[in-house]
Structures are given as C-alpha cells and as structure tokens.
Amino acid sequence: MSFSMDTILQFINTYYLDPIRGDEGYNPVNTFTWAVILGICIFGVFKLLEKLEVKITPSFIASILPFVLAGSSLRVIEDSPADIFHPPFSYLLITPNIYFLVFAITIVCLWISIRLQKAGLVKDFHLTFASFGLVWFFINLATLLHFENIVFPFVPLFVLGAGTGLTFTFYLIARHFKSSIFTDPLNLSILMAHLMDASSTYIGIDKLGYFEKHVVPTYLINLTGTALVMYPLKLIIFIGVLYMLDTQFEDDERSLKLKMLIKMVILILGLSPATRNTIRMTLGI
Known about the structure:
By secondary structure, the chain is mainly α. It is built from ten helices and no strands.
C-alpha cells in the first residue's frame, strides 16, 4: 500500500506539480487532463451563463476579450524576472491555475455589470463589463512597463501585421468562393487570433530563441525544423473545426448557444497565448 501511494504521489509530482512549480510546459499526461477539464468547464460555463441569463452573442464575446488581454498580461507579470509576485501566490499565475483565477475575477465583474444594468445604473452591461477588463489590462501593462523595458518593439508590429494580413488574404479567397462560413466576422476573428498565435510562435522560436511548451507543436516544429509549420497547422485545424461547427450543429436554440460558447472558447485559446507571447517578447522576458 505504501509503495502504491508513493507511486501515485510521484506520478502527480512528475506530471502535474513539478511542471507548474518549474513552469516547464506541457507533457502528454497533463495535456490530456487539462483538455478533459476544459471540456467539463465549457459545460459548466454554459450552465452558469444560462443562470445569469447571459446570451452568448458577438457583443458578449467582444466584451469578454479585454479579460483575455488582462489574464495574459497578468501571466507575463509572473514571467517577469523582477519577481513581482512570490510563491505561493505566484503559483496561481502559472498555467493552468491562472485560468481559474482569471475566470473567477471575470465572473465577479460580469455579475457586478449585470446587477448595475438591472439597477438602472448603466444602459448596457456589455460596455461596463468590457471596461472592467480594459482597466485591469492597462493596470497590468503599466506594472510591466514600470519594471521592464521595451526590448523588441517590432514584435507586436509583426504579430499584428502578419495575423491581420493573412486573415484578410483568407477573407478575400473565401469571398471569391462565396463562402458565408469563412467570411463571417466571428469566424474570421477566431482565425486571426490563431494566426497571431502562430506568428508569435514563429518569430519567438525561429528569430528570438524562445521554445514551444505544447506537445503537438513541439513535435511538429522539431520534425520540420521551423515554427512556420504553425501556420498550416492552425489553418487546417480551425478551418475544419469552424466548418463542422457551422454545418453539423442542430438549428435549435440550445445547440446554437453551445456553438457560440465553443467558438468563444476557441477564440480565447488563440488570443490568450498570442497576447502573452507578444508582450513577453516585446519586453525581452
């Protein structure tokens, strides 16, 4: 029994706790675990938003994006060599723990915004909600710029330029073939977020000496010898995912709500690392 318990504890330390403590990135075991947890959380968020009577519309998705920027910049604060935060609190800011922290703060801000609208103090809770996120994001940026210097100012220009340019090119091709799916603004926003993520990965690994933490991208980058592989990888995956979401879901209201939630999550999963990578590299962290 003792050996069995020691083995379990060693397994937990090796695949879960040590990567968090050392910020070592992902391995196949914790990648699978976090994916399962993410799937469970999606349905939990779905139920929570229903309880709060929040409709997942493009306006709501836009209002939540400042919190993605805030959460990503908060993670960079933890990455900073200035040691702004210290253990054990700093462990809350390492993936995946930071997701739960940011989620909790986001939900509190959402609840406050909804209550303000119901009390007649604001007209539209979306604007108030987004404002909370923007204020948080700018506070994080101000904190980072206080402790760090801008080292590579070309990084955000490249990431934004490449992401926007490739997305616009894709839009022109989709419009030529009269594709309603791939000229949809939300779908294009998802592709842009992930192309920005691919751009940040490319410039970081191929040009600035950073390394990839995720299992599948690491394998493909090592296999091809370049992070340029992230561009076709992102396009193949998310063109397929978006096509399935827009063609295979039922047309009933509940299915449409779930589809919008999944799209929101996919957008966040692209924008979050793109933002974090870009800020980190800009500051040379």
